[in-house]
């Protein structure tokens, strides 16, 4: 196997990095309150330039829908550069979560109506799952075959019912919808069919003409990844696809693995950028008449952080090649991001934790991603469970069956 990137893949990385270097002010945007904190949560002009000039939203979409026909590897390289610049964009919500589900489950009419607009950047989308169940719905930290996280017919969650005219009506709310306040299209996971015979389905809600839809942007820990609460009150919706028996939880789990691979690459880019800024700082900052970076303890600390970044990059690239390893790679990359950004704040000294410096933005990205898609120990536990590394627990009555003697107890427990 040749693990080297192709010329085309290297060119994608170089082009995206150059676009951010020329089109984005120095340092992560949002510190002045113009890009990340107000309006749509991203710079529309930059988004239009990335979509029209580079075709970034259509990078992994099929050519018949206006995309470039590339795969997860190419998109992951773009996400690594996005993480490096920490640019707030609706790319992950639109192309990392929604587009794969539409590609896999939608009818041809729905694909033709949505994906070309996604590819040219004129339409952004967001995935809505009930409450705070995003990581569970994507099967990153748990999950179940029947999609009980969607409400299970009980109070709460998001419920769907036929409207009697071939359409559907949705009722409920989602608390953590990435870029949900500005998306033109919502892909909503809702429970239908009652409690005993219910199932989870996906529905399209076109925000422009949606009735009973209310969206509120949250004040989030990481302002470069906007979140919103979406409330649905008897809102008109369209079933995604034409197969009511489609295995939606399995499709969400597959999308979750790909999304994890993209997030892992993004975390590597952010970690490397934080480390690069720290190296530049300790080279320029003087203490006791010499550069801080010349002290042996600082050199050792930076070397440790460098090793973590490179190990995380290896995991992220492997996951981009094989998205099935996405959740495990995400765990390693988020852990590396947490460690590197924490070290960056310490090595920057007194300025490192100030609001004016960008170090806290990288730290918040890692912390926010762990809250949304982790934490790390649960990502690893889920990956181990999926891989079958742990034997199933003994039945509850196994020990009681042999309680009369020590050997009988061991036999009853299967020891």
TrEMBL record:
Keyword Oxidoreductase: yes
Coiled-coil segments on the chain, per record: none
UniProt-listed InterPro entries: Acyl-CoA_Oxase/DH_mid-dom_sf (IPR046373), AcylCo_DH-like_C (IPR036250), AcylCo_DH/oxidase_C (IPR009075), AcylCoA_DH/ox_N (IPR013786), AcylCoA_DH/ox_N_sf (IPR037069), AcylCoA_DH/oxidase_NM_dom_sf (IPR009100)
Acyl-CoA dehydrogenase/oxidase C-terminal domain ranges (all copies): 261-380
Keyword Thylakoid: no
Sequence segments annotated as region (Disordered): 21-42
GO molecular function, one term: flavin adenine dinucleotide binding
Family to which this protein belongs: Belongs to the acyl-CoA dehydrogenase family.
The protein's name in its UniProt record: Acyl-CoA dehydrogenase
Source organism of the structure: Streptomyces wuyuanensis
